[in-house]
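EI: anyone free to look at a 154-residue chain?
SC: sure, send it
EI:
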Amino acid sequence: MNGPPRILVVSHPRSTSTRAVTERLVAGIAEGGGIADVREPPAADLDAVTAAGAVVLVGPEYFGYMSGLVKDFLERVYDPARERGVVRPCAVVVTAGNDGEGALRSVEPILTGLHWRNPLPPLLVRSPAAEADLERAFELGATLAAGVEAGIFG
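SC: here you go
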């Protein structure tokens, strides 16, 4: 990879917790030597995925499922990514007022179908985000960026 790794952060930041987690994740990506390309789901597309060394999905849990806009992003890139063989390391961050497990489970089969690898455990943040949650988001971003740059995640 030439230059610092570009990490696509697809964030649906409607809640205070999701915004705070995204900000700390982006700071971690910079600390890990990467460049964050932060986009809300409607602005993210296959070109952005292709330009990135990894993807991070950040969104709230709604009704026990991933947010509709995150699902929309995945639906739009799914077939074209599979057809073109676009495979990326991918991290998942869910902010939840409930347990968040349904949102995590709903993303797994889609990522499996895309052959996107999840090299790091998903981050589940129960709202409101505590300082420890924000630190974990920072560490996730830094670790992902450093791993992509070192070639161990991509």
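EI: The chain has a mean pLDDT of 96.
SC: 👍
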